[in-house]
Amino acid sequence: MLAGFLVIAYSLPFAIGIYTENVFFDRQWLADLATVVLNGVMQGGVYAMFAVGLTMIFGVMRIINVAHGEMVMLGAYLSWMSFFWLGFDPLLAMVFTLPIAFGLGWMIQKFLLNAVVGGPELTPLLMTFGLGLAMIYAVEAVFTTDFKSIPYAPDSFQLTETIVVGKSRLISFVMALVISVGVFMFLKKHRIGKAIRATSQNADVAMVCGINIYGIYMVTSGISAALAVAGGVLVSIQFGFNPETGIIYTLQAFAIIVLGGRGHYIGAMIGGVMLAVMESLISFMLPNGTALVEIAAYGLMIFVLLIRPRGLMGPKTD
């Protein structure tokens, strides 16, 4: 059923495009389609990276962190401050911004979320919702609600005679891929990464085996915050942003982990690419498609929850 739904979902933009005469199937249109899909895959790499942070928190602590998008927004503003206030390259500034983000995530877990882990699911949800609102209003007080942007690598790469890729998008994809693979290898090989995976599988057994699960919770939240801030840095060099754009990224992250499977690392990466490609197809083929891309996230999340609640690669049982 999920496979059938996905086939229909990806065919629908083509059908609407044909009906509205936006699909031509000539050489230039096919080249434009290849460019759109390629850009969608690269944007999906960035989506997947910051969605992985959300799926890690859910997988380890079963906490629904609705302030995750605000951490992405915070990363965008840290990137903007590094570029305009300090004159640093936003990517090089991650050497400083990511440790700051890790420390912030660590403190949020230690002083707020540790007290509610294992309790009713509504309590941490409301707590992170309030935290997200506080972050939005704090950023608005400092920077106002105006949109900001960073003029970073505005040129393009000419891959073929007809396929062009923006430098900022390609740089973002490469950085997201490096960070995602680095975190994956950390979880796979490092002793702390193995402890995180053990805690996600069964916290009680992990504690009996001598793992400090509350310390693992803080490390997990720190990594999640660092991934979100890194995602904010990478989207800030591509798109404009303001204090309320974090809401959109929260929606996208939830759609990705629902599609890929709650708590599943590889599933989140696959879901990120699938969502970004869907958004690219909608913006390319539908009239006024750019204004309708959020439908992709809402639609995928709702229908996947109805058809296959555990997503592509989620566990069969909680």
Residues in helix, %: over 70%
Mean pLDDT over the residues: 88
The low-confidence parts are: none
Taken as a percent bin, the fraction of beta residues is under 5%
Shape: globular
Structural class: mainly alpha
How far apart lie the N and C ends?
21 Å
**What's the number of helices?**
12
Helix and strand sequence: HHHHHEEHHHHHHH
| Record field, number of beta strands | 2
- Give the radius of gyration: 20 Å
Q: Which strand order do you get reading across the main beta sheet?
A: 1-2
Largest sheet: 2 strands, antiparallel
Task: Characterise this structure.
The chain has helices at residues 2-19, 27-61, 68-84, 94-113, 122-143, 167-189, 191-201, 203-208, 213-236, 245-260, 265-285, 294-307; strands at residues 156-158, 164-166. It is mostly helical and 318 residues long. It has a domain at 46-265. A two-stranded antiparallel sheet has the order 1-2. Helix 2 packs across helix 7 (191-201), helix 10 (245-260) packs parallel to helix 12 and helix 11 (265-285) packs across helix 12. The model has no long low-confidence stretch (mean pLDDT 88).
Which key terms come to mind for this protein?
318 residues, mainly alpha, two-stranded antiparallel sheet, globular
